[in-house]
Amino acid sequence: MTRARTALVLVDLQRWIVDMPWQPAGGDVVSDACERLREHFASTGSSTVVLVRYVRADGADGGVDAAPNQLVPGLEPRAGENLVTKHGLDAFEGTDLHDRLSGEGVTQVVIAGLSTAHGVAATAATALRLGYEVVVVSDATASVDEAQHREALDRLTALGARTGLVSDFVAATVGGS
Q1: Is 34 in contact with 166 (CB distance < 8 Å)?
Q2: How far apart, in whole angstroms, are the C-alpha atoms of residue 50 and residue 44?
Q3: 140-149 pLDDT tens trace
Q4: In whole angstroms, how far apart are CA 39 and each of 46, 146, 164?
Q5: Residue 28 to residue 156: CA distance in whole angstroms
Q6: pTM given for the model
Q7: Contacts for 53 with CB less than 8 Å, ≥ 6 apart
Q8: DSSP-H helix ranges across the chain
């Protein structure tokens, strides 16, 4: 098996979304897991990091500069990272995400964020249709309830995605998180 050029795609980690009630893990737990993933992928130097945010197309939420549309502290874009603004569920629809990834030679996307059944699932399904290998990090995403979370993961697996855990990517540290 050849080594894939990988992109980490973190979906909709804005405070107003993170603060909603999520299962099986709360939004802060998901955003912390996404921070750990980001640190790992950024440290490899051979991975692309993409941060995705949702902003209403009609501007009713104040647009890209409005405080609610900023990513949670700790997940703001860094130099060399990609920030994609979407107006629907899917991070590929109406954006240049596919062009950015294919331009960097990405063949595999690792997806995490909120929510499993919405932004994560829509983005993962499109990535599969576009020919990417897809891994959804199941303990770095959540949904309205645990059943919806599990159903979304099962649907994505049936489409050809794999699931993984944060620990599959990030080495466990002695004594903790």
Answers
A1: no
A2: 15
A3: 999 999 999 9
A4: 13, 27, 17
A5: 24
A6: 0.92
A7: 12, 13, 14, 64, 69, 70, 71, 83, 84, 85, 86
A8: 15-18, 27-44, 97-103, 121-129, 146-159, 166-169
